[in-house]
Amino acid sequence: MADFTLLPDLAVRNLGGSVIAASDESFAERENLINPWPAGHQAETFGRKGQVYDGWETARRRPSALGLKVDDRGHDWALVRLGLPGVIRGVVIDTAWFRGNFPTYASVEACAAEGHPSAEELAARAWVEIVPRSPLTGDAEHRFPVLAARRFTHVRLNIFPDGGVARLRVHGEVVPDPRLLTGLTVDLAALENGARVTGCSNLFYSAPANILAPGLPRHQGEGWETARRRDDGNDWVTVELAARGTPRLVEIDTTHLKFNAPGWAALSGRDARVSEEWTPLLPPTRIQPDGRHRFRLDSAAPPAEVTHVRLDIYPDGGVGRLRVWGELTADGERALRDRWDAFDA
């Protein structure tokens, strides 16, 4: 199986994830589970609740009476709403820095729910076990492939009986709801709409998939940045769009890239069903550091219908976000509906 950690983390906070409930968070807050950065730690840093941990930590469960079996103490859990619903291909349970207070076992369940249900309403849903009860060790990253080929909106991490988990990563493929996209002008290159990066020339400083993320980049590290070129070439990234569509407007955002933005950028497109050749959509155009650039894709020729785009930057540098606004074609809308139906529970 390919490395599922190369897929987007559907639960991470900066893609819209939220830990909406937990059984207990006496020592460390549940929200830490989905922070986008690796868990940190500073020894002998004590707050009012004890050692400060960059993770989720629950109180010690005690038997209610003498002679009660260890397994009868119950267990703790945390409920996560995925920022980007989709097919889960793998889960990472990271106990970084929890060395004497990690759970003995963990399992993960998932469900699919319409609308915006509360934690109480989700309790009555039908949950599917996607990671069976499995042993954990302290201060370690545990990777679990997931085989359930269904679209999920929520996951529930169960830990047995109690303890601390630094991070929960839920990697998978975005499956957007076609009812929110059809008949509208949409960002064809948005990760939340199902677009994905398929290749790039260089990812020395940061991953190219960042340019498809929702919202504005908060700092330089939340975009795509390449190494400095020492030849006559240029850097590029290719994106498979949410579905076949007609681009109308492109936005190239270099926010926070003040001294390492490209000098120029160009956009090309192709319809993979017809040809592997790239057709220019936006010719090489001068761009500026630390700013948003919008270009209407006017042309005397009929509007291009494409499945992929390629962003070329000259000669190198960084881009915070790429937006490709347009409409889905009729067969593009049909492809989204077919994908939805294929993974609908």
From TrEMBL:
Keyword vocabulary terms for this entry: Hydrolase, Purine metabolism
Pathway noted in the entry: Nitrogen metabolism; (S)-allantoin degradation; (S)-ureidoglycolate from allantoate (aminidohydrolase route): step 1/1
Gene3D superfamilies attached to this UniProt entry: Galactose-binding domain-like
Reactions mediated catalytically: allantoate + H2O = (S)-ureidoglycolate + urea
InterPro entries: Allantoicase, Allantoicase_dom, Galactose-bd-like_sf
The keyword Hydrolase is assigned to this record: yes
All residue ranges annotated as the Allantoicase domain in the record: 16-174, 194-328
This enzyme's EC code(s): 3.5.3.4
Keyword Transmembrane carried by entry: no
One Pfam family per UniProt: Allantoicase
Family: Belongs to the allantoicase family.
NCBIfam families reported for this sequence: allantoicase
Protein name as it appears in the record: Probable allantoicase
Organism: Actinoallomurus vinaceus
Lineage per the UniProt record: Bacteria, Bacillati, Actinomycetota, Actinomycetes, Streptosporangiales
